[in-house]
Amino acid sequence: MRPHLALIDDDTDFALMCRSYLEREGFTVTWAMDARAGKAVMYHGGVDLVVLDLGLPDGSGLELLRALRATSRLPVIVVSGRGHETDRVAGLEIGADDYLVKPFSQRELVARIGAVLRRSRPPEVPAVLDVGSLRVDTAACLASGTGVALTLRPKEYALLELLARSPGRVFSAAQLLEQIWGASWQPSATVIEHVYRLRGKLARLPVPAPRITTVRGYGYRLDP
Prior knowledge:
Helices cover 42% and strands 23% of the residues. By secondary structure, the protein is α/β, with parallel strands linked by helices. The chain folds into two domains: 4-120, 3-Layer(aba) Sandwich (Rossmann fold); 128-223, Orthogonal Bundle (Arc Repressor Mutant, subunit A), CATH 1.10.10. The strands form four sheets. A five-stranded parallel beta sheet has the order 2-1-3-6-7, sandwiched between helices. A four-stranded antiparallel beta sheet has the order 8-9-10-11, covered by helices on one side. A two-stranded antiparallel ribbon has the order 4-5. The chain starts with a strand and ends with a strand. InterPro entries: CheY-like_superfamily (IPR011006), OmpR/PhoB-type_DNA-bd (IPR001867), Sig_transdc_resp-reg_C-effctor (IPR016032), Sig_transdc_resp-reg_receiver (IPR001789), WalR-like (IPR039420), WH-like_DNA-bd_sf (IPR036388). Keywords: DNA-binding, Phosphoprotein, Transcription, Transcription regulation. Residues 4-117 form the Response regulatory domain.
C-alpha cells in the first residue's frame, strides 16, 4: 500500500514540487491550498500523515493542528518559513510530530516522513502466542495446550489472551476490568469468577501447563 499524504500548503510552486517528488518516492499525495480544504482532507479518512504549512490564506496552521489534536493522533509534520525557536516550540507543543524550516531538501522531507510513519505504527503483534505449552491463536480466537483445545467463553478467552500477550506481567483487577469489560467500576468479583473458571480449564490440560498466579495486593499474572 502506498502511504497517503495530505499536503496542506498555499505556495503553488512549492506544493507542486513536493507532490511530484513525493509521488516519485512512492506516496499518494492529496494537495489542499487552504485550511478549509485541508480540514476536509484530514477528516475524510485514509490519510496516513499530514504535511502542514503554518501560513494559510484562511487561517493558522497551528489552529488547524490544535483542532486535529483534540480528536486524533494522525501524524503531522509542520513545514514553515517560520524558523524562530518560539514557532518551532509552539508547533511541537501543540502536537506536531516534526518541524521542518523552509527551505529544505526534498530528500530530507522524505526521510522525516519515513521516520514519523515508523514511529506512529503500532507494534506488530504475533497472530499466535506461545506461552509454555499454551498456544493462543489470536486470529481464530482459539486456545490449546499440547494439542488439547480449550472451550472458553468470550470473556474467558479475552482474559487468557490478554495475560498471554504479557506473560509474567501482573495485571490489577481494575486493569482487567477496563481492558476486557471496558468498565473499571464493576466489582472485582467479576474478575475473580472468570479467573477461577479459567484456572479450572487450564488445570485440565496435559501437564506442564501455564497457570494464573495471584499476586496478593496487586493482581494476576500468567506463568508458563
